[in-house]
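re: ur question from earlier - yeah i can do the single chain one, its not a big deal. heres the input i used so u can compare w yours
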Amino acid sequence: AATTIAGRIAKRFGRALEEPRDGLTALFPAASELAGRDLTGLGLPGSRCRAISSLANAVVSSDETLAPGRTLEELVSRLASLDSPGSPSRPHPCLPREHHQRTAKWS
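and the output i got, formated as tokens:
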């Protein structure tokens, strides 16, 4: 599913390759190309569209979001501090599944 969604994002917002190779037809867009964009129509729930946009905005506004050398705990903390779509009791959709399981407060 993730490969399909990434392909849809690349096709819609990325740069098309002049000569497709091995099924690849477009380059994935830079964060600046996704920040503030309407991502509906990609087959994702609205909350995930907003999560991708939120992450792209954070990357564009601060090169520290995904800076090399961060520990997993630092990365999870930074992602958790982003504007989280949906219920405040739910972890941000960009966080790893393991973080969701550790912090889950819903059934």
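Residues 66 and 75 are 7 Å apart (CA to CA). not sure if urs matches, ping me
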